[in-house]
């Protein structure tokens, strides 16, 4: 089996577990909506930034954002850096969902660490971090990572 397939299987399991647990906690949205919402920066993000980070067309991102607005996870605000632009921000409900997702992610990581061993999990995470630095054309700029 290729490394790409193995990474996809692990990512799919991780993502499905997060969405299932969030649904159980009362946050109802699709995996596609969650993928986009997960990329919203703390100070908000522009539609084009989100589309690029998610690797999807701007039109697809706009469609998903409208759905996220309808369920109350996000809102649009004027961008203070550019009067012509808008920022997508998480609502209070969206921030609660994001915090819940981070807790679920931590639980999954702890369980996977137990499955592999703490040392093997740490090494895997380090190697994947290095690989991301080398190949991720959608990585956030250092400026956005601080925000």
TrEMBL record:
Residue ranges constituting the HTH marR-type domain according to the UniProt record: 1-136
Keyword annotations of the record: DNA-binding, Transcription, Transcription regulation
Keyword Transcription regulation among UniProt keywords: yes
Superkingdom as given in the UniProt entry: Bacteria
Gene3D superfamilies xrefs: Winged helix-like DNA-binding domain superfamily/Winged helix DNA-binding domain (1.10.10.10)
SMART domains named in the record: HTH_MARR
SUPFAM superfamilies named among the record's database cross-references: Winged helix' DNA-binding domain
PROSITE patterns: HTH_MARR_2 (PS50995)
Alphabetized InterPro entries for the sequence: HTH_MarR-typ, WH-like_DNA-bd_sf, WH_DNA-bd_sf
One Pfam family this sequence matches: MarR
The name this protein goes by in its record: Transcriptional regulator
Origin species: Glutamicibacter nicotianae
